[in-house]
Amino acid sequence: xxxxxxxxxxxxxxxxxxxxxxxxxxxxxxxxxxxxxxxxxxxxxxxxxxxxxxxxxxxxxxxxxxxxxxxxxxxxxxxxxxxxxxxxxxxxxxxxxxxxxxxxxxxxxxxxxxxxxxxxxxxx
Length: 124
Prior knowledge:
This protein is an alpha/beta fold. It is built from 2 helices and 8 strands, in the order βαββββαβββ.
């Protein structure tokens, strides 16, 4: 095997427009691709990435399984990001302090879970 990295993760959504707004306006993701789906008419192929990341999510309305997905987003300043997300109107649970780091759970409009976490350097 010569795997290099993870490129795409399908994120099941019911409304691509609402999800695009959530991920770009609330979480700061950037559009990598936004075009007419190559096989399904009336559906768009939308890839979003956190700034500087190589792995994208695809806002998928066509997959059969609509079970919510889970992503882990790693940050270098969870307290600043937490305050920013609250200022944007997200209702977040309190920060969870664990021996490995600090986290909070973000839920998108379709119930997909995004764990925002800041890892603690265990070598210290």
